[in-house]
Design brief:
Layout lengths: L3 E2 L1 E4 L15 H14 L3 E5 L5 H13 L4 E7 L2 H11 L5 E8 L2 H7 L4 H18 L3 E6 L6 H13 L4 E6 L6 H14 L7 E6 L6 H10 L4 E4 L13 H10 L1 H4 L1 E2 L7 H11 L21 H9 L27 H10 L6 H15 L7 H12 L7 E8 L7 E8 L2 E8 L3 H13 L3 E10 L8 E9 L2 E9 L2 H20 L1
Parallel strand pairs: 1-10, 2-3, 2-9, 3-4, 4-5, 5-6, 6-7, 7-8, 8-9
Antiparallel strand pairs: 11-12, 12-13, 14-15, 15-16
Helix pairs in contact: 1-2, 1-11, 2-3, 3-5, 5-6, 7-8, 11-15, 14-15, 16-17
The chain binds 3-methyl-2-oxobutanoic acid (KIV) and zinc ion.
């Protein structure tokens, strides 16, 4: 079947990174960008360079290192922002400057304190300036779905005339309803014939849980580029989820008459990596990548699946990269067996990282009989997402029970020194956190705490994710161990190490 190719514009590293506590350093951005390249996205929006010198440097690194996809940076419609953005993306194989400005009355009058004509003039000047620097310019009419239609058409026409090569129509606050948003895209195409010469894009937020539905409605009505994030992460309720859009288009090609260039077998791995590196857990019932997405539990469903998978399965797990590997690694498996299994799982680790993974593997395998593929992925991804260790966990002991005051005693490694302390608390986690707070000299406020078993079984590896407020900033941390209190302590320390890495 001859279908249209939809451009997948991934903004995990920009809109996704706007989630509090999910801030990435340059190395982490590069790690995810490389995986996005393997996934086959067409455009990577690597960041918002004028937001900080650190983000400008991170975008620059991605632009220098990642080949294949277009590398975009976001800029407000301000000359200085556009210059900083260009400096960050210019070394990319295919750079793009993405300029945005509010177009709804509430944005124009209240946020920008302009009138419509001044905002239109600002849009024109910003595209003119960006175009002098870069042939590939995207313009976003922020809050388009709440913008007066005639004014929206004027802005779109004007920026195309100035040379914008992609025009993006965002549903910035997730306000639109699919029929309405689809009709907006169709009416825009009818009213602005110049849109036929450029790429028409959409960018939908999920405030009413309709980000994916609105994006798909837009595709059916002529959108050619979809902006989305892995796992649907992003501001507030998030952005349209990449994996859901891609798999919907793939599952219903006749309905959409469209396809993407995504290698769907890389979806699961990308989802895990983003969740781990950005410390944002994936809800179990999340479509395509949630841990229950392919689990059939009722007897009737299991019976149907055994007779013919198609009875209850519209997507095959292996098509999105979910495979069950038989793993027989134990504490006695040596480095070469570990290296072999890692290669089978698709991990290519440099010498240092491999050694860290090996040490952690031995530590875990000493306490857990068999190491499964999921355990190993968890160990690797935690090591990958580590920041320089100001403090490392050397040992942890705790006493707890129904009739005693919980007590934790902690030994931390700081450089070559070992420091130790003990504290009591409401429970073993509280006691451990109080003890760590005292040892590192800061008090962390626990905002979120997620603990789950990586695999089934009583000896399952526990994986803890925390989000902690430290001195006014929010830092996330992740840790694994067969002991859930130890996993939690590791995650808490990981958040502190992130704080120290950013503040010293
Ligand atoms: O949601 C939005 O409007 C945006 C723009 C910057 C594209 O993220
Ligand atoms: Zn957005």
């Amino acid at each position: 079947m001859d279908t249209r190719k939809i451009t997948i514009f991934d903004t995990t590293l920009r809109d996704g990174e706007q989630v509090p506590g999910a801030k990435l350093n340059a190395k982490q951005k590069l790690e995810i960008a490389r995986q996005l390249e393997r996934l086959g996205v067409d455009v990577i929006e690597a960041g918002f360079p004028c937001s900080s010198p650190g983000d400008a440097a991170a975008v620059k690194l991605v632009a220098q290192e990642v080949r294949g996809p277009v590398i975009a940076g976001l800029a407000r419609a301000v000359k200085e922002d556009i210059d900083i953005c260009w400096d960050s993306v210019r070394e990319a194989e295919r750079p793009r400057i993405h300029v945005f400005l509010g177009s709804s009355d509430i944005h124009v009058a209240k946020k920008l304190r302009m009138d419509r004509d001044t905002a239109l003039e600002t849009a024109i000047e910003s595209v003119r300036h960006a175009k002098r620097l870069c042939p590939n310019v995207e313009y976003s009419t922020e809050d388009a779905s709440r913008t007066d239609f005639d004014y929206l058409c004027r802005v779109v026409e004007a920026v195309i005339k100035e040379g914008a090569t992609t025009v993006n129509i965002p549903d910035t606050v997730g306000y639109a309803i699919p029929e309405e948003f689809g009709a907006l895209i169709r009416r825009l195409r009818e009213r602005v014939p110049a849109l036929d010469k450029v790429t028409l894009s959409v960018h939908c937020h999920n405030d009413l849980g309709l980000g994916v539905a609105n994006s798909l409605a837009a595709v059916r009505n002529g959108a050619e580029q979809v902006e989305c994030t892995v796992n649907g992460i992003g501001e507030r309720a998030g952005n349209a989820a990449l994996e859901e859009i891609v798999v919907a288009l793939r599952t219903r090609p006749a309905l959409f008459g469209a396809h993407t260039g995504i290698n769907t077998t890389e979806i699961y791995r990308t989802s895990r990596m983003v969740s781990r590196v950005m410390n944002i857990p994936v809800q179990p019932n999340k479509a395509i990548v949630g841990s229950n997405a392919f689990a059939h539990s009722s007897g009737v469903h299991q019976d149907g699946i055994l007779k013919d998978r198609a009875t209850y399965e519209i997507v095959r797990p292996e098509d999105v990269g979910i495979k069950e590997h038989r793993m027989v690694l134990t504490a006695r498996s040596g480095r070469s067996a570990l290296r072999h299994k890692l290669t089978e799982l698709g991990y290519e680790l440099d010498k240092d990282l491999f050694e860290r993974v090996y040490q952690r593997f031995i530590n875990v395998a000493d306490r857990k009989k068999e190491i499964t593929a999921k355990d190993l992925s968890s160990i690797v991804e935690v090591e990958v997402s580590k920041v320089p260790e100001t403090y490392g966990l050397a040992a942890l002991q705790f006493m707890s029970g129904t009739r005693i005051t919980p007590l934790a005693s902690v030994r931390l490694k700081k450089g070559n020194e070992i420091v130790m302390d003990a504290a009591t608390g409401n429970g073993p986690v509280d006691a451990t956190f109080r003890c760590i707070d005292r040892m590192v000299g800061h008090t962390g406020k626990l905002l979120e705490y997620d603990l789950k078993a990586v695999t089934m079984g009583k000896d399952a590896l526990g994986e803890a994710m925390v989000r902690v407020e430290i001195e006014g900033g929010v830092y996330s941390g992740v840790g694994t161990s067969p002991d859930v209190i130890e996993a939690t302590a590791r995650a808490y320390l990981n958040a502190f190490n992130r704080y120290f890495a950013n503040n010293h």
